[in-house]
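Internal QA ticket QA-208
Title: Verify multi-chain structure generation after dependency bump
Assignee: T.L.

Test input:
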Amino acid sequence: MAADNLPSEFDVIILGTGLSESVIAAACSRVGQRVLHVDRRSYYAGNWASFTFNGLLSWIEEYKAGPSQEAVQETWREKLEEGEEALALSPVDTSISNLEVFCYASSEEPEEEEEQAKDTTTCSVPQTPDSEGEVERCLLESSSVEEDEALAADGGSPEPAAGVDQTQPQGEASAEAEETEAEQETCPQVEQSQQEQQEKPFPAESQSEPKKQITYTKIVKEGRRFNIDLVSKLMYSRGLLVDLLIKSNVSRYAEFKNVTRILTYRNGKVEQVPCSRADVFGSKQLTVVEKRMLMKFLTFCLDFEQHPEEYQDFSERPFWNFLQTKKLTENLQHFILHSIAMVTPEVCTAEGLRATQHFLRCLGRYGNTPFLFPLYGLGEIPQCFCRMCAVFGGIYCLRHSISCLVVDKESNKCKAVIDSHGQRISCGHFVVEDGYIGEDQRKNTESRQISRAVLITDRSILPSDSEQQISLVTVPPMEPGSPVVWMVELCSSTMTCMPGTYLVHLTCSSSSGSAKEDLAPVVSRLFCTAVSPEEEPTEGEKGSEVPTMLWALYFNMRDTSAVDRSSYDLPSNVHVCTSPDAALGSDHAINLAEAVFRQFLPEEEFCPPAPNPEDIIYDGDGPQGEGPGFDEADPADASGSQGGESAEPQDVKQDAEQTGDVATEETSTRCEPGPASEE
Amino acid sequence: MHGRIKIKTTVQQEEEKRKERERKLKIYVTARDAIFSKRKNGVLDDEALQLTQQLLASNPDVATLWNYRREILLHLETIREEDDVQKMYDAELSFLESCLKVNPKSYGSWHHRGWVSARLPRPDWARELSLCDRCLSLDDRNFHCWDYRRMVVKMSGVPVDQELQFTDRLIGSNFSNYSSWHYRSTLLPLLHPESPEPHSPCQQASHSSPLTSPQTHSHRVCEEQLLKEYELVQNAFFTDPNDQSAWFYYRWLLGRAEREEMISCVFVSREEERVAVAFSRPVNASSSGLILVLDGQPQRVEWRSIHPRFKHSPVWICKIPPGTISDISNEHNLTVHWTEKHTHRDCALYTGRSESWCRDSATDQELFRSELSVEKTSVLQSELQSCNQLLDLEPQNKWCLLTIILLMRALDPLGYETETLSHFQTLKEVDPMRSAYYSDLCSKFMIENTILKMEYAEVRVFSLSDKNLTSLCHLDQLLLVTHINLSSNQLLRLPPEFAMLQCLEVLEADNNAIENLEGLYHLAKLQDVSLKNNKISKLSDLQPLTSCPKLTRLDLRGNPVTQIVNFQSELAEVLPSITDLLF
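Actual output:
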């Protein structure tokens, strides 16, 4: 069935599969709205996506290459009727800028590389998005991500390698590459390998020989083990996102791990922040009196509203000043301000106390830190909501965009849209990601930038007994005026990087210009580049205490989260979802989604709990509707779907894609993903 | 619109659930009946094992089924090869694991696991330990698991230091778990026993049994380790001063060993021809092999406790055969043997003396160094400093206040008396629910202090008026007291233990709220009792006084009982010996 056979009418059409859009899609579909959810990209989650290493390289390529030179189709003109005008959407995404890639890991095994070079040429063709303007089945499109991965797996992932070579600036990386042959015996790492064996999934590898230096080739080869988030966020365990996941039962589609440590950078070294009761008890850095003062202050913060006398004089004054009056040592003030409240010193006391309280309330719900991280990366979360939408009948098309809106001149409402295949589809409401809005529709072009860096490193920023730590590191401004940076270090058990490496995300609100300018000072302080083997180990000693960077990416992402709806010149039934914000949690995106939902469905409940799979009856008025295995043979069905529920998120990902497929075959009524995933 | 899904209504769901329940019940009942009939017929086969497994999987708390299962397993054990037995029990263990997943606090499952583990031909204790660790990580207060783990540790001989590390880990993740602290307290004395120290010879002179020190050190920990433990536990109570587990552990660390069991006093009175013996703890004289030897001759005597209420008592009395010691010109040597404890105490009654005693004084025994051990003063002093530091930060913390009081008592009970009293006052204010407890405790300390003062003054007069006493204790220490003043306190009664004041002649207890005189029982020397302004309301309350032969003066002014019609004549009937009655 071709995509232009999409139904010609929907209640809601959503363009963009970021978190807010996906939540809206799930919420609408859940209460019976007919939802069409499309994305111009070949992957889910837009700027919230997670990529395999090779997927990320393709993504980089895509943005480096700039907008594809696609002939603007004017065919939609003829679809317009009397009294209507067209409002074109932007065909290109300009939200990402200042991309810079550095490869510090050396490549090896030249003969293999040659082989790959050959592959490169053959593989690169189908990679280019929209290369052929032909009408493709959505089914194919949605599975293309998977195809990429498959390619990467067998082919040793080729084309990205070439891509990186191009991006290496002054050949410094290639200079390192020449030193490859000698680099194997890196002495400082041997001791570490013993620790590693404990949790390493492949003990055989590490046992037989001292830890092998990780080469670029290895990273590419193991590229499928990476799931690199474009947006680095953590989930506050009592934040809106977690509450929503629980309330809506969407949480069943994903798995999570607790962030295990909160660290901070202070006086030139990385320290653990004692934030939970157990941390404070076990802390070696604090004196017993400090422990008491810290606990006392934190206990006060938990219900500070009950003790207005303690802070009301300071309510509007800076939090920093308030802390100084609380008999807290400098140590403690730093911890509270930067790592617990995570606010700037100037923030007013009331807000600082609220932030502290939020942090503390999140503690202990799932573990000793307030944060959760989704296995396989944050990009899983929008997909989970898409899956929920699909379960309730939402239709999904990737690599499918909307060219323009059809606006009724009289009412100034969007009546319909014309998709990238030229089909006119009417809709009641249209929800669109900010990135699709053209410059003409923006009254106020002011927007902020988020600076991001992604590093692959060879060891943890603060090695401990366990290799498998997930750490949040707060880095206060290195010098006055420079930004507050937070850093999330992920270990391989989060399924976001290959064993033996760590994936480090740095994020800050951009102050000066490019991400590199913002973040490089922090990166150079905390990480080093590969030590060349000629250097004496004594010299390298100091360097060996900090992790070595194997690969680094810098980019800026536009942050439109503060842009008001009134800043867009759009019909009233068109709703804009702004980009991810710079905050650590996802509250903004969830608030936004709920606000949009409330605007056009004020009577309906927002994401009510999804019923258990066995309580869903498939309404069979389609020819295949009453297929066997659903209405009959109940017990087997139920157990099957339970199996589906407990499936690994990796399966979930595929499920989501499959349900997408299934849903697009609109005549089919098979929506429940459980049994489908079993087959 | 097709392709939409419907959700079953609640009624439909309820109905389905009901049917499901019925179906399950039917299966359950059928299986149960089958099992019981099999057991009745003595069938011990695999099928029965299957059936019981089916039921226990859903309800692991049916002890009968586990019992039947054990019968079957024991039978199968006799007819199978060892390898098969191993397999059989391994299967049993994995079945049990699934039961524990359903209910990690099932008595039946844990008990059965213990039984199976003990019978396994080749037990895998490491696996059992890791099972326990998993269980405890889910719920660190699961006492079933703690119990089972103790068994596993014992059976597999896990080294003590490894177990100590285990408690380190548990305490590190959650220090509000007394199970872990307690376990620690059992391990430390094994791992770091206190080195036996020779005791200072100066103590020996005054003692009749010089070679034993007043404190035995069996459960103590060496000082180096103690200091580490103090630090650990301080981290806990500074982090959360309201958590009692850390404070209890701290009390244990500071705690003293049990006192040595001994005869603390022998008193002999020529006139009354009797001997009173005090012990370091309540004993039952009739079953502990008490022998009185007089001038080398074992005597046939009848030991009686100070009050018929007590089968165990720290003071016992016996009559000496009439005429044996009545001649004041004779000197006698008494020895009391406590054969059960292989100890004895001598006492000489010299010519011309009407009474004599031999005892260890409370000061010698350091009896009232509270519950705390006599550690090096410097250690206790620094602990007191830490606690005072915490008190500065948490002036309302009851645990801290109480600990400070105990430390002060261990260091210098008399020197810290004022501070102790003021801390008690704070305690009663911050913890009004336990104010009566604090009052009793405070009374105890005041009595101890007064005993010490009396000892230092070497007198037999005990005066403790106007001290807010709510209860009496350490009365065994007052065996020799002749005059006691308890006036202006808040006493409600003179308890049976009061009968331990065997030498008492004069009792003043004015201005209390006494309504019960049970303890004025067989006090042979008591002559003068003043009970002004108390709550004695019935003549029968005075009944115990009839057992005191020498009582002649009684002051009952301000008691309700005096309002009774014909009080004087009624009383004369009950207590004819009273010659001097004030009312």
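Spot checks passed. Confidence is low (pLDDT under 50) at residues 198-217 of chain B.
Status: verified.
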